[in-house]
Amino acid sequence: MKSPKLMAVVAALILAFITLQYFGGRAGKTTANHKQGQQDQKAGAVRSEARPEEKKGAAEQQGEEADLPVKEEIHRTYQLSPGTQIEVARFDGSVDIETTDTQTAEVHVVRSARNQTTFEKQKFVIEQRPSRLSIFTSNRPQGIWDVVTGNDELRTRVTLRLPRKSRLQLRGVNGHVNVGEFEDKVEIGGVNGRVTIVKALKKTSFYRINGPVEVSVGQLDRDGIEMFNINGPVELRFAKAVDADVEVSGLGGSFNDQGMKVVMAEERNPRNFTAKIGSGGDPIRLHRINGNVTFAMADVKAEKKAGGAAVASAR
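Now predict its structure.
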């Protein structure tokens, strides 16, 4: 008979192996996404107006993870009312969102897995209600063997064309996120990858993001811009001069003013400070940013050059 002590040691070794395999795999994916975000930044984050079918080749050329053997494609269209709340959540892959002046929402998705049963375990769900459209992957329990072998891995590429006059809430994405111009509120959280917004016009919130964040600010409103728990550099590019009150706390990098004429308060330390742009006004709150923060005026020439490349606001 095996001694209880020996059996306990064997059980502990097995548990340690499973834990190492799980977290090692997640860490590898995090590192890969972070490296891809850096590559995209250096390359100018070039994206085109191509249809979803045409984007596959371009995405793979830019270093995206290749599709797994079994694929599933979803293409659907929905009519929305102005001001609809759109929720996008729980995707292990990239999300690209374009905006239009119509009230039509187009959903284009490519999912790939190692076997067909994964699609049944992780269902793609779209729920439409009078003032809400929810797009997400359903949660399901994952067995220990699936964690170790990766048999239930699911890779997703989501491309959405959404009405500009809608509100966006996006969370729980393990991949890069590119967002077009919205005329209403935008909230983005729980992202493991680079986040880019073509133009922010109303309240914009970012939280728990592991990667660079780049926002082109078309204008500010009284709710302003809020960011907290960002592990990566932050860049705000303003289309025009603004009047804003800036509040920074827990900054883990440097603050760079490139032509915005930011006036710091007299009592200041590098990690926690307040400042004004112009005469002050709409708030910009940055809390617990582990990276450099840059405020700059938008480069008109660069915008024209990248006009068709960024996730476009089709008119």
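Residues 175 and 218 are 25 Å apart (CA to CA).
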